[in-house]
Amino acid sequence: MARQVIYTFKGQTKTIAFSYDIHHDLYEAAAEAEGIDLTKFLAMEQQIALTSKKGAKAEKEYRKTEFARFGFTSIKFVREDDEI
Fold first, then answer.
1. Residue 7 burial by CB count (10 A; 0-12/13-18/19+): exposed, middle or buried?
2. How far apart are CA 34 and CA 53, in angstroms?
3. Segment-wise mean pLDDT, segments of 10 residues, the chain, 84 residues
């Protein structure tokens, strides 16, 4: 079964196909669909991962804050019982 990601970007809700063969996670898939370059974001996220304690919330909070700054308000997988 193919996975789908539903996200809201600048007020518009969109659904895209998702595959782990192509993308690392659903955030990267949504950013690519909107044409956002994540090169600097991923480098900073890696630095945060190296300097924070394993299991700390620093990475998750950075990702959440930056994606909100990019214009995303919601990014999640579509569940089978969700209606699009």
1. buried
2. 32
3. 89 94 93 96 93 84 94 91 57
Q: Is-contact 51 57, C-beta < 8 A?
A: no
d(CA 46, CA 30): 19
* Partners of 4 in the β-ladder: 17
Q: Which amino acid is at 23?
A: H
Place of tokens 């804050």: 65
Answer positive or negative: Cα dihedral of 16, 19, 24, 26: positive
The residue type found at 43 is A
* Tokens, residue 47: 């630095």
